[in-house]
Predict the 3D structure of the following.
Amino acid sequence: MRISFLRGAVPDVSRRQFQIDTSDLQLSTRIFLTSPHPHLASTHPKNPLTSSIYSGTVPLRYRPLPKEGAFAASGTSIAICDRGDNIYFGTGGGSVARVFHSGDGGHSWSAADTPIATGNPSSGIFSVACGDFLVVAVGGDYKEPAAAKRAATYSKDSGATWHLAEQQPGGYRSAVGEIGYGDFAAVGPNGTDVSQGNGGESMHWQHTDLLNLNAASFDGQEGWAVGPKGTIARFKTHFLYQIKNNAPTLVPLPGQ
C-alpha cells in the first residue's frame, strides 16, 4: 500500500490503493481512499476504508510537496480512529514529514508539519497510532536504523501541532501501536520501545530489547509483531511478550 500523489490522474478503483489527485491545483487537492478489499465495498460514509471510493478536499496550501509520499509500513502509515471519524496518515521523502488529518470521515483534510527526520527518500513517518490522549507518529531513516534522533513525535490536539518525544526511542521505528491506558509500543530493526502514559502531557520512550521486528498490531494490552526469518512475537501484557521463532522464549520487559 502506498499513498500516491498523482497530477492529472483519474482514480483507478480496480487498483484499490490510496491516491491523491492534484489535477485541479487552482481549487484544491483531492484525496481518494479506495477499498483494499473488493468484497467489503460499501458506500457507508462512516466507513471510508470499506467504500469502493471515498474522496475529500485538501486546501491548496496543503498540496503535495516535491517527492512527498507515504511508506507502505505494513499499512500503519494510516490510522483510522473514533469509528472512522478521525483519519490520519503520515508522509516522508520530501523536505518535511507531515501528518494529514480528517476529522469528518474523509470529507475534508488538513496537514501539519512534524519534527520527524526527513530530507531523503528513506526517511519520514512510517507509522501513526491513536491513543486516549495522544496521536503518535514514528519513523526516522530506515537506512540508519540506529539513529535515535527525531524518530518519534506526538500530538495533543488531534494532529494540529506536533512535538518531539521528550525521550526518543532507540532508533528508526517502523510501527507503533497503542497498548492500553495511554501507553504505546514501537518496533524496529534494533528493538522495541515502550512509552508509558503521562496523561498525555509528555512522552518518554524506554528501549526494552534488541529483537528485530518490522510490523505490529495491537488490541488493547495484547498484540502481535513480526520480523525477519519467520520471527513472530506476541505481546502478552505491557511488560511481557513471547517470541515464536524455533522454540518459544519469554522475554521480560521493564517492571518484571
The chain has one domain: 65-252. The longest strand covers residues 123-130. Residues 1-28, 34-54, 244-256 have pLDDT under 50 and may be disordered. DSSP finds no helices and 21 strands in the chain.
